[in-house]
Design brief:
Elements (H helix, E strand, L loop, with lengths): L10 E3 L5 E3 L4 H5 L3 H14 L8 H30 L3 H30 L13 H11 L5 H16 L6 H9 L2 H11 L2 E4 L2 E4 L14 H9 L3 E3 L7 E4 L5 E5 L2 E5 L3 E5 L1 E3 L1 H7 L10 H13 L1
Antiparallel strand pairs: 1-2, 3-4, 3-7, 5-10, 6-9, 7-8
Helix pairs in contact: 3-4, 4-6, 5-7, 7-10, 8-9
Length: 304
């Protein structure tokens, strides 16, 4: 694919309306093949964002040209602002420089997320099937992400969507964009107690005051309920259930499994929302020693 196919005056508009020179074969410049090549080309086709991996020697000449274009862009924007809105050229140049600096930071953040995601692509991924409007929304959020932890989370979302298009909804993108590192840490802690129950992954939260739930609290669970990741019954007055198939439900945790001959299985006082289920897929799986015993004893008592 050559970028000329979607170019405008030998360039392509990025997601913020600026022109990016794409007069070359993207994969040739980057030296990418297979799924990585397909993802980068999909991004270039879909939103006009050209990924620039940090290869200093290879990109040195390009960066010199970039500096020249940046300086020229500041002058042109300043002249236009002076003419159209009547502010001084000095003030206009200062504003233009600030705008271009912000755009550069956002582009670097996006490039960082892309670079991380390439390492997690599967051989049979299908990035060409990612919806263009999904990509626009994804990169609109990613430009402002600065923390290493959240960049890692966003890169897992991008690679996950490329591996299995349709895995992450736009609602989930919005929720993730509002989450802080603290929110993500609470969710990560809760995910330690997630088991496979039938066809679903669900948190098994019973009595939160028990020692097995160390580092979790009522307030933490109520918080991730408030941001739309779980439905949590703080009072513990009801249990959520997972419906089985053919009168059987398989419970699995940390490589151990138990088959229950039941129509439905109690899973405690919390249940993932759709968004929570999707974001669980990007959480690194950790397990709690002794939790399989706790969970199966809880279920055994409920179904006896």
């Amino acid at each position: 694919m050559t970028a000329n196919s979607a170019s405008e005056s030998n360039g392509m508009k990025d997601s913020e309306g600026g022109l990016v020179d794409l007069n070359f074969e993207v994969s040739d410049v980057l030296g990418l093949k297979g799924p990585a090549e397909a993802l980068v080309e999909k991004i270039a086709d879909g939103i006009g964002h050209l990924y620039e991996p940090i290869h200093r020697e290879r990109m040195a000449v390009a960066r010199v040209e970039e500096k020249k274009l940046e300086a020229r862009g500041i002058d042109e924007i300043a002249q236009l602002a002076e003419k159209e809105i009547g502010i001084s050229k000095r003030r206009a140049k200062k504003l233009a420089g600030s705008m271009l600096a912000e755009r550069k930071i956002k582009k670097e953040n996006r490039d960082d997320v892309i670079e991380r995601s390439l390492e997690m692509l599967e051989d049979n991924s299908s990035p060409e099937e990612i919806d263009d409007s999904w990509l626009f929304e994804f990169f609109d959020h990613v430009g402002s992400v600065t923390s290493d932890e959240m960049k890692h989370a966003w890169s897992r979302v991008l690679s996950g969507e490329a591996n299995r298009p349709g895995s992450f909804s736009k609602r989930t993108l919005h929720t993730l964009s509002t989450m802080s590192k603290g929110d993500a840490e609470i969710f990560r802690r809760a995910c330690k107690y997630v088991a496979s129950v039938g066809e679903d992954y669900q948190p098994i939260i019973t009595d939160i005051t028990l020692d097995i739930y160390t580092n979790l609290s009522y307030d933490m669970l109520s918080h991730i309920d408030s941001i739309g990741l779980v439905n949590y019954d703080r009072g513990g007055f009801r249990s959520f259930y997972i419906i089985g198939e053919d009168g059987k439900v398989v419970f699995e945790y940390d490589g151990r499994a138990k088959v229950y001959e039941e129509e439905k299985l109690p899973v405690g006082n919390a249940l993932f929302t759709k968004t929570g289920t999707e974001l669980f897929e990007i959480v690194e799986r950790n397990h709690v020693e002794g939790f399989y015993k706790h969970a199966t004893e809880y279920i055994d008592k409920k179904v006896e």
